[in-house]
Structure formats: structure tokens, C-alpha cells
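Board notes (copied after class):
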Amino acid sequence: MKEYKNEAEFLKDYNPEQFDRLSLTTDIIIFSVSSEEVENYRKTDKKSMSVLLVKRNNYPFKDKWCLPGGFVEIDENLEDAPARILKNETNLENIYLEQLYTFGNVKRDPRMRVISTAYMALIDKNRLEGKLSTEASWFDVVLYEEENNIVDIVLNNGQEQISLKIEKVLRDQTTDRYSFHALKNDSLAFDHDSVILAGLERLKNKIEYTDIVFNMMPEYFTLGELQQVYEVILNKKLLDPAFRRIIEPKVEKTDKIKKGEGHRPSVLFKYKSK
């Protein structure tokens, strides 16, 4: 191997063609919580977790659903790519984004060696009526965790239903990290079933110790509505007194009232910013 006197001399001889090339993409999993109307006027609307999917119009995976995503441009910072892609593919902008994981299975993309850095976005989709592109659709999410770390996920947008089955394999017991393997996936492109599950687990873990959930809430809400959102994300029923003790430092009472639901009007609260 040739020895160089300095970096400039090394760079003069450097040939990038000697290395195999790979491409970098970013995929964005956008979560929201929406209301389903119930027939009994005395009950508040039921909350459902939703994820935004886009139908592909090109090969590979033509006509299959996928998360919004695309290639990172050669002169683009990684953290700038998700915002650009969201604007182009879904017409959404200025929403909460955080980096999730990097997915690098060798066969995740049939075209070439592609690594994807996934991001998670949280929004209140009730503020976005009429703003989505025609290729994008919200799918309600129902998650069932079976024994032996087998997870079933059902996605439904009212016209199509997607059923997924994913196996969780423990990678590191000290950090409780898992890898995901698709057992059933006929309708989602790439490895986006694993990305969705990773996002659901990240969100479930983070609402325990952060205020991240308020990115999915309207400016004003009842404590009952907020509790329903927590229950949807955690996939379990919470005791009212315990929840209100935990949430009390995070919210502040307003002089606004919500009428028309239940037996009596409800006081509205808002997030208490730090």
C-alpha cells in the first residue's frame, strides 16, 4: 500500500469507484389519533390510532401502499430530506419529526443496495382536512400482540384492509432491542411493516416519560379525550384517578367549555408549555 505524506496527496490519488455504491433513502411514519363517531350521544367519540400511507405509482411494488419516502439527494443534509419529502408526497409541512431507526437489510429493496433512515412524525390530523395529496390515505391501526413475540397489525382506511404478521426477535437482552421479521405482508412495499411496528413501539415507550403525545392533540381538549389518546397508544385501559394525577403537571385548565357530549359540559384544558 502506498504511503502518503499528507491528506492532499492522498485525495489526489483517491478513486471512489474502487468502492461499491449504496443509496440512502428516508421513510416517514406519520401517526395521528382520530375520532370515530358513536351512535350513543351520551358517549364521547371513540379514538383510533392512524398512520398515513401513500400508494406507489411506479415499480417496484407498483400499486402497493408504502410510507411517504424517497432518496436523499447528493447535496442534501439527512435531516432536511424528511421535510422535503413530506411536502412533495403528502402536502404536509411544519410538523413534529424525530429520527426513528436505520433499516439496512440487504434485500429490503429489489433495485439496489438501499439503506433507509426512518423518521416518526406526529400530528393532529383533524387540522389537515383537504390538504392531503390524492395518493395519500389515512389507515386506522389495530395492534394485537400474541404469545412468542408474534404481532398482528390490521390497517384499514374504510375501503381497503391490510393484515400484517411480524415476529419480534430479541437482539440484545441488556437493552431490550428487537429485530423484526415479516411473516405476512401482501400489501405494503419494502420493509415498511417493520418500520410501522418500530414506530408504534417508540411512541408507546416515549409517552411514558415525555410530553410527545401533545403533538397529536388539538390546542384545547378535555381530560377524557386526552386519556383516550393515551389508552389508544398504550393499548390498555387506564384508571381515571391515576391518570389525572400523572397528567396534572402537564396541562392547565382554561375557561372554555365543550358542550354537546355526555351528561354535562366538559371543561377544556391545554398543554402547559415549559
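Comment from the instructor: The chain has two domains: 23-206, 217-271. The domain at 217-271 is CATH 1.10.10.10 (Arc Repressor Mutant, subunit A).
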